[in-house]
Amino acid sequence: MKGENSRDFALLAGLASGLVFWITQEATLAVLVSGSLWFFYARRFEGLRKFGLGFLLLFATGWVAISGYSGVRPFVECALIGISQLVSAERLSLPTFRPDVWQQALHHEIPWVVAWESLSDFLSGWVPLVSYVFALTAAWLLKKGSLHRRHEIAAIALFGLLMLLPAWGRSDRWHIFISISPLFLLWGLVADWESESRTHRTPWIFLILGTLSALLTVPHALARTQKDRAAKLLSRRTTVSRAGAAQLPYPQANAYEFMVEWISGHTRPEEPVLYYPYNGAFYFLADRPNPSRFPILAYAVRPSQQADVVRELDDAHFKWVIFDQENTAFDGKPIAEFLGPIDVYLRTHFISQEKHGPLDFRKRMRSP
Q1: Residue 176 near residue 125 (C-beta atoms within 8 A)
Q2: Residues near 94 by beta carbon (within 8 Å), at least 6 away in sequence
Q3: Contacts with 151 (C-beta within 8 Å, 6 or more apart), sequence order
Q4: How many Å apart are CA 84 and CA 48, to the nearest integer?
Q5: Which of 44, 16, 45 has the alpha carbon at shortest distance from 32?
Q6: What is the pLDDT at residue 351?
Q7: Does this model's pTM top 0.85?
Q8: What residues have CB less than 8 Å from 158, skipping those under 6 apart?
Q9: CB-side exposure of 37: number of CA atoms within 13 Å?
Q10: What is the dihedral sign for C-alpha 61, 66, 71, 76?
Q11: If we measure between CA atoms, which residue out of 217, 257, 220 comes closest to residue 237?
């Protein structure tokens, strides 16, 4: 974005966008729209061409790789259509201001950091929206300052606004922090702009931006520090080689070790095993293939997809399915109803052999 040197980074930005597409499509859409408009309005058409070329190169490379690995159609149905429908079905409401939490903190019923976290969650939904809309409006209407600087601010504000949309549809902290990341870059540019003019309002702008930045981040940082300190006392490394040096809570570490040991003793390498209905990490940890193309069967949200899963499971001829009897609902709906055809198939073709805690190990029944 620095003057004429921006075109030197246009190809690199496009390559990064093409790579990010295969990880998060929302971020890629935001980058493509805001980046293309910035190059266009800045009349840097050579940079725009390099930006598009870089994206197409990495996008095409990923397309070819996925075509050879599992096929593009399963990826589109699962990672694009399936997850979007899943998120739509489990839409979370935006965090609201919680006066009851502050009352509990005042009466020493909960730690103060919990109350500050609730305020941070509330502000993270509205402060970015107001900031992005205000920045776009100011960049469009105000004639003050260089045109290049206004284009920078408008592009970052547009990028942030597009990144805010998935956070409003799925307002967990992961999506919230992704959506407010451009906000700090935007505020940094505004602060840099103000520091050049140094008017009477400059200290107030610095104070407001600094206070909002602290309210959005410091409570979460303090809470995370406390949680990490407690987690160290309640977590340990596992003997599962594929878990690496990860520290897991004792119950989770015990469960993973037991499952991996059990699967190793009852199946051959490369023999498919199904974990039902969630936890796609199991296949990696146990080093066993998934008999379905869906890493988590809950991604098969449409009847046609569920029918495909049943055919895949029937063709795979795998022997074992592990029923997780603790996770029996999705978005308040029983999993037996949400994944009706799949649930019926598994219950009528597999019979319980062993039960350990919430896990029911079922083996395929022999054909009559």
Answers
A1: yes
A2: 125, 168, 171
A3: 38, 41, 42, 139
A4: 29
A5: 16
A6: 94
A7: no
A8: 30, 33, 34, 37, 132, 136
A9: 15
A10: negative
A11: 257
Strand 329-330, strand 333-334: pairing = antiparallel
Structure tokens at 294: 């869906």
The pair of three-digit structure tokens given for residue 27, joined into one six-digit string: 């971020």
Q: What is the pLDDT of residues 239-294, one digit of tens each?
A: 999 988 888 888 889 988 998 999 999 999 999 999 998 877 888 999 999 998 88
- Look at residue 272 in the predicted model and tell me its pLDDT: 93
Q: What whole-number distance in Å separates Cα of residue 188 and Cα of residue 194?
A: 10
Q: Which residues of 8-38 are buried (b: 16+ CB within 10 A; e: fewer)?
A: ebbbebbbbbbbbbbeeebbbbbbbebbbbb
pLDDT score for 79 = 63
Please write the tens of the pLDDT for every residue from 7-23: 468 888 888 888 888 88
Q: Which two tokens stand for residue 90?
A: 């489990």
Residue 331 phi, psi dihedral angles, 5° rounding = 55, 40
Residue 364 — φ and ψ, nearest 5°?
-65, 135
Indicate the residue type of 318.
F
Residue labelled with tokens 């074992």: 320
Residues 6+ apart with CB under 8 A from 329: 335, 338
CA distance 148 to 22: 31
In the block, residue with structure tokens 């739509």: 88
In this structure, are residues 294 and 86 in contact, taking their beta carbons and an 8 Å threshold? Answer: no
